[in-house]
Amino acid sequence: MTSKQLLSLFLIAFISINLYSNEQVCAAKKIQTMKASFPAAKISGYSVVVFDVDMNGNIKKPKVIVSKCLLKNKKTNSREFQDCGIFKYESINAAKFIKYSKPADSNGMPCELKNQKHEYTFLYDRENDLKFFEERSD
Q1: DSSP H helical ranges for 23-137
Q2: 10 Å Cβ neighbour count for 51?
Q3: Is pTM beyond 0.85 here?
Q4: Which of 4, 8, 57, 91 has an alpha carbon within 20 to 30 A of 135's alpha carbon?
């Protein structure tokens, strides 16, 4: 390698390391959650809500990305989680009350958190359904 190539390689590595070390990590602590109301349907399941957290620790743009019901599979006669929308409304309503401490980066500067997740569990028949939640692997 020529000295120009070595110098170029060194500069690229130095700039890359410097850029990496200048990245700040934004963090906050979840300080309040609200239990979701149980929907009218008598069924167990869960939902996952994703949202952003603004500089004041408030939730922005909550959206349900997963909503599953514990249903009987007619082919196998077993119970399994299947997509359903039953829990979306109650999950979004409860997520609006989640509160975080004010997010700050590693230098103490205010920042926003993106794509935070919270899972809501809906157990209708706790005695019989809890084992399915414990065995879940997703």
Answers
A1: 88-95, 126-135
A2: 20
A3: no
A4: 91
